[in-house]
């Protein structure tokens, strides 16, 4: 395969890291097995094999490769990160009462909420074992703090999502919890295990943090302006599910009294009727909040790219820069 | 307070360890706080303040004190163990759809399943941060393995509880997961942090393991023979909830065809009718399974006491011996 012929940055990264990713997938397969409880691999295989872009483990492998790391702990850490991500998805589906994930029925629908809760816990404990095997207290510290940020962000989202008082700073904190904390931990631990300096580790954190925020803002924006064929989501799902995301938060911040009443009725109280989505889109257009949200996503992607300046000049660095562009390219 | 005037071993242990337990409670209070998500301390306070005997953190403090440990990490580890226990209870209540815990409505009833799942995750991540602060990879290894055993045991219980093929070895594994793994990790890490030798750490593991098994077998037996005023449970709750515990497993193992059909209908299929509990009790009496279960609990308690022989001759050791007696004293 000619890697230069591949145009999408995450696909080029995947191609360059394909041997390592194969090792990660094999480790995931081995460690999600359970001699005693066959329900565990059934549930996780359903989710893990459904695919997804494996973006998070790839970030860990890429960060280690930036420093030409020659050991094997980055494989463990990449699997750790994917296990944490999968565990979070299992618990999220229980919390959101979701019926679909990656185009397939969710585990809580195929089995039950119990299985999703307990198998999620099992994956967390497996990720914990994997990271302990690296013997790096610094890595453990980073992942412990990321876990706390993720869990706190999830609880915050649960209470803040339908509350009109949720402003951009609360939104940012939720986004850090639900997305950016694992992105930044993924890049950080890859650098730490490869012996990066403190300054470089900080740059890796900044890259993962900004990339994760750009990624999530883009996702939230696509919910209102996306092509449902390309995204697999229907326009306005977040509105119907009463989730306060950035385009709406910006509209609420500028709302006149009767507009505020509209958001109160549809989002806070959840009393939606025919035509409300169109009205919501009209209010977002009135205040240009989709454009403003796109500008925010672009700014975070630019910040991610700038963070890379402190890292070694390396083919991987070029691809990570391209990845930041790619995350927002779907918007522009 | 005259400690010698207190007759129950866990109350004497609590009295001797009261300064340390106060420090543990204070640390729990500080670490369960969340600046951003007030739902978190609301839910955990409900559960933590409801009491319980705080047996697990006490085991960690006692193990450290056996070696006259003079540091502060045992406080962190005791809080870690209680956080893991509390997180497990929150998730268990979702899985069991419980309405009551320690005589109060469960968190999933007062708030919702979402809160129980996510706050449980938050407590796990907080426990993880606390144990990383001890800087001991050996402690992290023990707790990572215990977490995996707990999670695997919970999944196993979910699928094995109503399956008549569940034998004593599967039961033991479930019991290790749901109870003994955290007891033994609690005693082990107390010893490790206090500098115990490998042989002593092994003895601490054996003590916690056997104590936890004795404790759980006693609990399961009391469900069938207990005084509901003293236990706060009704006789036969496990039967009505179709949980295969040791007294029934022993009866199933000796069942004749028509008896096996009875267990199949009531436990596997869950089609229970008036008079079934009485019939179940009659079958257990026929094969003497309550007595056999009591003998097993006593044997595990004796094993726990014997493990202590390898540990320093110390007031705490005498109390730990008494604790093993106490756990089964309710049966005899």
From TrEMBL, chains A, B:
<dbReference type="GO" id="GO:0106350">
    <property type="term" value="F:all-trans-octaprenyl-diphosphate synthase activity"/>
</dbReference>
<dbReference type="InterPro" id="IPR033749">
    <property type="entry name" value="Polyprenyl_synt_CS"/>
</dbReference>
<dbReference type="GO" id="GO:0008299">
    <property type="term" value="P:isoprenoid biosynthetic process"/>
</dbReference>
<keyword id="KW-0479">Metal-binding</keyword>
<dbReference type="InterPro" id="IPR008949">
    <property type="entry name" value="Isoprenoid_synthase_dom_sf"/>
</dbReference>
<comment type="function">
    <text>Supplies octaprenyl diphosphate, the precursor for the side chain of the isoprenoid quinones ubiquinone and menaquinone.</text>
</comment>
<dbReference type="InterPro" id="IPR000092">
    <property type="entry name" value="Polyprenyl_synt"/>
</dbReference>
<dbReference type="GO" id="GO:0046872">
    <property type="term" value="F:metal ion binding"/>
</dbReference>
<comment type="similarity">
    <text>Belongs to the FPP/GGPP synthase family.</text>
</comment>
<dbReference type="Pfam" id="PF00348">
    <property type="entry name" value="polyprenyl_synt"/>
</dbReference>
<protein>
    <recommendedName>
        <fullName>Octaprenyl diphosphate synthase</fullName>
        <ecNumber>2.5.1.90</ecNumber>
    </recommendedName>
</protein>
<keyword id="KW-0808">Transferase</keyword>
<keyword id="KW-0460">Magnesium</keyword>
């Amino acid at each position: 395969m000619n890697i230069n012929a591949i145009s999408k940055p995450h696909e080029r990264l995947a191609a360059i890291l394909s041997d390592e990713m194969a090792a990660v997938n094999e480790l995931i397969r081995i460690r999600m097995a359970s001699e005693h409880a066959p329900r565990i691999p059934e549930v996780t295989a359903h989710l893990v094999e459904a695919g997804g872009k494996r973006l998070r483990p790839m970030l860990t492998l890429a960060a280690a490769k930036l420093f030409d790391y020659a050991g094997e702990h980055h494989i463990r850490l990449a699997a750790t990160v994917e296990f944490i991500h999968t565990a979070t998805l299992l618990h999220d589906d229980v919390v959101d009462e979701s019926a679909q994930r990656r185009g397939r029925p969710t585990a809580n629908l195929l089995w039950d909420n119990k299985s999703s809760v307990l198998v999620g816990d099992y994956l967390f404990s497996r990720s914990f074992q994997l990271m302990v095997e690296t013997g790096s207290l610094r890595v453990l510290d980073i992942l412990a703090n990321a876990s706390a940020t993720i869990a706190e962000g999830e609880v915050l989202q649960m209470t803040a999502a339908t509350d009109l008082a949720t402003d951009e700073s609360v939104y940012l904190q939720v986004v850090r919890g639900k997305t950016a904390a694992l992105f930044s931990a993924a890049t950080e631990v890859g650098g730490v295990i490869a012996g990066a300096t403190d300054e470089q580790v900080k740059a890796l954190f900044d890259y993962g943090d900004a990339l994760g925020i750009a990624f999530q803002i883009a996702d939230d924006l696509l919910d209102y302006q996306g092509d449902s064929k390309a995204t697999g989501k229907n326009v306005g799902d977040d509105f119907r599910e009463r989730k306060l995301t950035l385009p709406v938060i910006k509209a609420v911040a500028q709302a006149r009294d009767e507009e505020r009443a509209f958001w109160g009725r549809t989002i806070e109280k959840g009393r939606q009727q025919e035509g409300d989505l169109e009205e919501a889109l009209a209010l977002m257009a009135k205040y240009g909040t989709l454009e403003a949200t796109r500008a925010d996503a672009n700014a975070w992607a630019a910040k991610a790219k700038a963070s890379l300046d402190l890292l070694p000049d390396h083919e991987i660095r070029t691809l990570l820069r391209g990845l930041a562009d790619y995350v927002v390219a779907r918007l522009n």
